[in-house]
Specification:
The complex is a heterodimer.
Chain A: H1 2-23, H2 32-46, E1 50-56, H3 65-82, E2 90-93, H4 96-112, E3 124-126, H5 131-144, E4 147-155, H6 160-169, E5 173-178, H7 181-190, E6 193-195, H8 203-206, H9 212-239
Helix pairs in contact in A: 1-9, 3-4, 5-6, 6-7
Chain B: H1 2-21, H2 26-60, H3 66-88, H4 92-134, H5 138-154, H6 163-200
The chains are: A alpha/beta, B mainly alpha.
């Protein structure tokens, strides 16, 4: 029952803050990875190269689905902004359901940009169904398809190092984010910029995806402060011998 | 149509969520999750066609690496036909085909994945070496020193174990790293929670919506 109450409170907070954020201008701290992403988007349109967005292999039927959904929100806005480029963005994933949603999201991005006729279904790809199979299928995309920026957002494991290495060899910049701790450390070392922890879920807010995205960041901040206070309260209570 | 998909997605999402809290709805939750698994299996078939379509296009356009694409399609079709014949036959032929299929998996797929795992070790070492060239800042230095200390505390050294390194390794992995990891995981959990709620409230629609 406690979980249900927490969910209801968070949902109410999210809705209230969304309405509030619609009226107030958003204020976000600068994250270097998003600054680089902006410049990579502009560069790909100007010099006729393409973005490669890899959404990982997080199945929507598992708890890893959260990062996949955040990646889809990011893909939607990247597709909208770069669809008019000579070379359209290409997206890869390692899960069949995610692959279907990838194609659908790409198409929605094109429709929103008023360029539906430019959409090519094969730009949304299933490159493999096991983690290493996915990496092996994604490496040639990064290396051979005139990619200028490799954006890895979603659920990855250690195999992310192979994809980032393929990008490095092709002089392609890598911006990475994952919900997996191993992949986060690998992407920190292998990429030009990495999004750490919950920054993965902030992409929508930074790409201007609507008031609900900055609102969900504020909800996360509120919940984080509540957790911090509970942790400190618990520690002090333990010290004082109350619990 | 879009409103209908959103209504169906929200209703089913809420029903599955409610199944965790209301025992009476647990049966419905299981049924819906089973349907989802069947749909995921169907999506895998669509995914295979996507793979054929992408690589077929590569061959048709004579793009770079089209030879590998041809090899992939030939392997895919032949394995499928092989599996089909295996399913349809019985007796001694079936036993022979079973053996051949196991050889195919054990002789190609497992070694290829093991090879990639081996390659990963070298790649990670190479990545660590390149880190300072790419991003020479305090965080990179701390990252590399930490990795070196952990390695020294874990590896068997020719002159025996050094208690300083093993003590440091224990402190780093069980105090600093665990604390940091918990902080990151709390952030990830909060992000997942709000992302899930956005989808449930239909403000984010990864299913043919906005």
């Amino acid at each position: 029952m406690t979980e249900l109450i927490i969910l209801a409170v968070v949902a109410a907070l999210l809705l209230t803050l969304t309405l509030w954020k619609r009226k107030s201008p958003k204020q976000l701290r600068a994250i270097p990875a998003f600054t680089r992403l902006y410049s990579a988007m502009g560069l790909s349109v100007e010099d006729g190269t393409r973005l490669h967005i890899s959404l990982g292999h997080g199945s929507l039927l598992t708890p890893r689905g959260g990062s996949a959904l955040a990646a889809l929100a990011m893909l939607r806005h990247l597709a909208e902004r770069t669809s008019s480029s000579d070379r359209p963005p290409v997206a890869s994933s390692g899960d069949p359901v995610l692959s279907l949603l990838t194609q659908d999201t790409l198409k929605e991005g094109y429709i929103a940009a008023g360029a539906e006729e430019l959409f090519v279904p094969t730009t949304g790809r299933l490159t493999g169904m096991s983690p290493f199979g996915f990496a092996a299928g994604t490496m040639p995309v990064v290396r051979d398809e005139n990619v200028s920026a490799n954006i890895m957002v979603g659920s990855f494991g250690p195999e992310s190092a192979l994809i980032a290495d393929a990008a490095e060899r092709g002089n392609v910049i890598t911006i990475g984010a994952s919900d997996d701790l191993t992949a986060q450390s690998i992407l920190f070392a292998a990429g030009q910029d990495a999004l750490i922890g919950e920054e993965l879920y902030a992409s929508g807010a930074y790409l201007g995806a609507g008031a609900v995205h900055p609102a969900s960041l504020t909800v996360q901040d509120i919940l984080r402060w509540v957790i911090i206070l509970v942790l400190f309260g618990g520690a002090f209570a333990k010290l004082a011998g109350v619990i | 149509m879009r409103v209908l998909t959103a209504v169906i997605a929200i209703a089913f999402g809420l029903l599955v969520l409610a199944g965790y809290f209301i025992p009476a709805l647990h049966e419905w939750q299981t049924l819906l999750l089973n349907w989802a698994m069947i749909l995921a299996a169907a999506a895998a078939i669509v995914g295979v066609f996507n793979l054929i379509s992408v690589h077929g296009e590569k061959i048709r356009q004579r793009e770079k690496g089209n030879l590998y694409s041809a090899l992939l399609i030939i392997s895919l079709v032949s394995t499928f036909l092989f599996g089909l014949v295996q399913y349809l036959t019985q007796g001694a032929v079936r036993v022979l085909l079973d053996d051949l299929m196991s050889t195919l998996v054990n002789g190609i797929i497992f070694p290829a994945e093991a090879m990639l795992m081996g390659l990963l070790t070298v790649t990670l070492l190479y990545t660590a070496i390149r880190l300072l060239r790419r991003r020479a800042n305090l965080m990179s230095i701390v990252f590399l020193i930490t990795a070196a200390l952990i390695l020294l505390g874990t590896a068997t050294l020719p002159f025996g174990d050094m208690p300083v390194f093993s003590g440091l390794r224990t402190f780093i992995t069980q105090t600093l790293a665990v604390g940091g990891a918990r902080g990151i995981l709390i952030g990830v959990a909060l992000g997942t929670l709000t992302t899930g709620l956005r989808v449930l409230l239909a403000t984010d629609r990864p299913y043919g919506g906005k």
